[in-house]
Structure formats: structure tokens, C-alpha cells
């Protein structure tokens, strides 16, 4: 479902308002995006209470950084989602060093093709990334996605997949090089 | 200025590895140091995160509890007074720079003074003014502003912080001399001014060409010996 309030243009306008100190605009942005961003926090932290702490941090960061959002670098939802991901991982690393997420969840995520609530313009960026990921050998694709979505380290991924550490390192490395070439936006 | 490694796969892969979070131990510490000391590397890390960001849309939505917005609003009220809106507006204007120009500008910005110095030096002989502004253009992890003044007579560094949202963490100050290795100058306050007594061993580093940086660190074990948390500001030392 594509809804107006989560369209890129709409979110960019809200970020502009927030950048000038408009708290009502932040509330509207929260209404439109909090389920998406809370989903990310819950996925990474696997703990609702921690995820709630993380989400508070996320919107305070958005409040402080909205003026620096650059639409040429990423869609607003991508930018907001990366803030939620990084904030959750920071919190996670501060709490305990264990892989976030879970292997099962990742299997489900990688298999799904459904992308909810994305406007056309944003969907094109998404499609490009997913096409490039699909061109990677499956092992490289899965390792990069699991690392990014779960915050797993090299050795955690290696033990998850039961491969040697060196093998995992070269999967990631080769995957990143291929991915950048495919995206061609260096 | 020669930067032979700048376009190498090696450099970009390292940025990608840090961005997706696979590095651990010494490799991670080394990459974090690079992120702290090299704005272009930090730019690469962010580029990787934004590139892969669409993956996050595959995570299912979860409605947030109703009590969360009021909690956020309360915290906003606590910090609103200190918010440097005028500075943000300038930043907003600056973000119209696009594409390749933005990347170049980010590099230049590293040594560009912030628009509104917080401290004006008057009475100290040969003070060093550090404009550690909000780091790099358009970065997802750029944030608050800092200004620092070093008084070499007293060997004290005075830091003015503005708009820092430290949460449960604490800001830690670093000096990064030419060798690129951050040395801790200890914890500072996230708002208002802090005085830092500079250890004798680090005094020689506080000179033009070195950088100052602020990271947000977990309180447990702080101050840390190497930056582990998010880098929220970097700036180059220059003399006025």
C-alpha cells in the first residue's frame, strides 16, 4: 500500500519543516514512520524495552539532523531507516556483544519480495539494489544482507553458516566489490 | 597532495565492512580510527550504509506503543533551548550542493571554520582556536557543534558544546595528530563548557594540523582508550 504521508515528497517536506524547529512536523513524521522504524529497532535489539529506548533516540536524532538530510544521497525513508539501524546497533553493542536478529528471521526476510509502503521513485532505488544483490552468488548476497540487517560480525556469520572465517571474509569482500560495481554509483 | 589509496578497492571494501558491521577486534578499532581521522573514509562508510539502506524495508513494521511519543516530546522539551536552529539553517542551505560537488565539499569542509564561532578569543596570548563544527556535510552521523580554545599557558582546553544529544552515553574528546591515532583527552560535558587539563604527554599534539574529535561513548568503561562509539564531530586545529 502506498500512502500519501509516507511518500518521499511528503517526508522531505516534513524534514524541511523539522529542520526549522517545527515540532508538529516531527509529530507528523513520527505518525507516518514510527511503525517502520520501530520494526527495525525491534528486529535488531530483539527486546521491546530496549527498542523503545532506541526509538526515542532515533527521533531525537532526526530532530537534530533533519536540516542536514540530503535528498540526492538517499530517499527519506532510507535515511531514516539507516538512523534507526545504526542507533539500535550502537545500543546493542553497548548492552552485550551477541549477534542481533536471528537466522530464522533473516531467512524469511531474504525470501520475501514484498516491499510495503514505498513510493514509485523510492522503489526504483530499491529495485536497483535488489537486482544487484540478486546478481551476487547466493552466499555473498546472504552474508551481506545478514550482516547489515543483524549486525553480525565476520566470525558470527562464519559460525552461523558453518564455514571457515577466511571463507566468510572473502565472501563479504568479493560481494562488496561486485555490489559497488553493479550499482555503479561510486 | 598524493592519495594513492583513495580510490582503491581496499579502502572502499574496508569502509563497506565497517558500514555493514562485520569487523571485530583490532580490525574494527583500526577502521573506527580511520573513520575518526579521515572525513573521506567516513563519507564512504555512510555511502555504503545509504546504498544498503533499502534492505531495511524488508523488516516488517511494528506499531510503536502509544506512550512513546509523549516520552519523546518530554525529551525534546528538555533539549529545545539549546538547539542551534540558526546553525542548522545554514547547514540546510549547504546541503543543496549535489553529487560530486558534495563529496568535494565534504573534504573541504573538514578545515572550514564553522559559521558562528562560539568562542571569541581576546585576552589569551597566542591561543589556539579549534572549530570542531558538525563534521561532514550531509552525514547521517553529523550532529552538534563544538568550539574549543586551548590556553597554552594554563595547559587547559576549554570546550563549548551545543546541541548534543548524548542519551545514555558520554561525549569523549580526542586529539588526532599526524599519525592518525586518536589520543583521549577525556570525557567532556554535552552542554555548556568543559575544562580539560591536557596531560603533558599530549601537549605537543595540540597544534595546527592536528584534529580534534568528539565521540559518544558508553558510560561503562569510559573514558575508553580508543573510540568505540559514534563520532559526532571532527575539526582541525588552527591558530588565531
UniProtKB/TrEMBL annotation, chain A:
Residue span, RNA polymerase sigma factor 70 region 4 type domain: 127-179
Residue span, RNA polymerase sigma-70 region domain: 29-93
Alphabetical keyword list: Sigma factor, Transcription, Transcription regulation
PANTHER family (UniProt xref): RNA POLYMERASE ECF-TYPE SIGMA FACTO, RNA POLYMERASE SIGMA FACTOR SIGZ
Name of the protein in its database record: Sigma-70 family RNA polymerase sigma factor
Annotated source species: Stakelama flava
Lineage: Bacteria, Pseudomonadati, Pseudomonadota, Alphaproteobacteria, Sphingomonadales
Automatic annotation (TrEMBL), chain B:
Protein name: Anti-sigma factor
UniProt-listed PANTHER family: ANTI-SIGMA-K FACTOR RSKA
Pfam families attached to this UniProt entry: RskA_C
InterPro entries in the record: Anti-sigma-K/W_factor, RskA_C
Highest rank taxon of the organism: Bacteria
Location of the Anti-sigma K factor RskA C-terminal domain: 98-231
